[in-house]
Amino acid sequence: DPTAYDRNILGRWVPKMIGSALFEGYFSKGHHVRGEEGKSGLNPIPYENDIKNPIIVGHDPGAVNVSKVFCQRHRLGDKYFWRVLSSYATVGKKLTIEQTVKNLLDKMVDMNTKAGVPLPFMHIGDAQGWTHWNEQGDFAYKKYFDISKHLIETAPKYKDLTPIRVIPPRKSGGSVRERVNSLRDKLLSDEMVVSATAEEVVNMFMMLKKKKNDVDEPLKTLSGEIHTFDALSYAIYYFDLIGKTRIKDSPKKDLELVSISV
User: Fold this and answer.
1) What is the pLDDT of residues 109-124, one digit of tens each?
2) CA dihedral 56, 106, 155, 112 (to 10 degrees)
């Protein structure tokens, strides 16, 4: 229990969350959050080993409930460290797909401004954006690409961006629990920090509830934390699967040489 460890071993005062929170005992604002809520937080790190460090955008698409999470992933020895930079969500409010894409491009411009240089973006989201028709008779992610391409070509403020191509992770029937466990593991092993300005992610970790009967799966509520969970966990799950695939397909003697970066 990281809360008990922080209190009893490190001597920190950490408030104990009450209720059936999905990440109770795993997430602590005092330990995992960087910056001051609503005022300061994490900015992009533009370069790693003299190579531009991409911003990874997790998507939960929808016409009424939309969530986007902006992260960076850093190599630290034989592990990867996640920094959650920013997030936003629209819950219970219907937006056109054109407005959704414009909001996303504006946020990408903001990320580049904070980085001081134009960075590459990698977009990862639920496969439903490629498999479910939207009201306009097209796939949501195809519209993301078409609309963003048009805006980038016609609006000067977007000139340093590239069209949005969303990649879905391969999901199995048990992917929800796998994604819950992945986030828990990264919190417990100190492989993730969250910017105080990523308020939707902080609230998700604090407030997302379990399903009834103490099942380790998120409960859908009107407040919409599950959409932020999906956006963040899809991005991380994508890289988890890449690592598992490459390790599985590599000869045992070469495991120490396997790189799971992309």
Assistant:
1) 999 999 999 999 999 9
2) -50
